[in-house]
Amino acid sequence: MSTSDLKPEDIIDFWYSSDISIQWFNSTQTLDLRILNEYESIWQQARDGKLEAWQFSPEGCLALAIILDQFPLNMFRGKPESFSTESNAIEVSKWAISRNFDQQLPVDQLAFLYMPLMHSENTDDQNLSVMKFEAAGLENNARFARHHREIVKRFGRFPHRNEILGRESTQEEIDRLASDEAFKG
User: S-S: 145 plus which of 28, 93, 129, 183, CB 3.0-4.6 Å?
Assistant: First the structure.
């Protein structure tokens, strides 16, 4: 199937398939390469605004959130491009929430609609993330969201991204990254 034939359901079916879902937070180089080879073109289309029509359905918003937030983390692991469409993903997530699309998706799919908010370096987005995960009863995700929010509240950003993004780390950030409390992404 060419990327021009892909529909939101194709992205959702891929992402939630049993062989992919077990790798969500323990990705391998093989998965990263697979996503790059199979989905870079659709990511580019989403990045360039060519899939805006997808925003008019709950499934389309979920698929866009996955494409814009999760796929680049795999495709460009350890590179600045991994965060290049994060703001787009955040906007999709907020758009979906503002239209109550999140209320029309199965609870087990909500995490990846809300995940861009957890990845944001904006405190308001972080607060919304925690609120949405808690309201959905996704306690494991809410625990991570609260942790992410505390990092952003404390540092105004995620220190583990500094090196990748070419940002200068403060001594406090360096100390945190060297500690047992360090969150590395």
Answer: 129
- The Cα-based distances of 149 to 16, 29, 88, 100, 156 in angstroms read 26, 29, 20, 23, 10
Give the dihedral sign, CA 52/125/115/166.
positive
Mean pLDDT throughout 86-101? 98
- Tokens representing 159 are 């220190």
Architecture category of domain 3-178 in CATH: Alpha Horseshoe (1.25)
Q: pLDDT-derived band of residue 179, with 50, 70 and 90 as boundaries?
A: confident
Looking at the predicted structure, is the pLDDT value of residue 113 above 90? yes
Query: How far apart (Å, rounded) are the C-alpha atoms in residues 86 and 73?
Result: 10
pTM of the predicted model as reported, rounded to 2 decimal places: 0.94
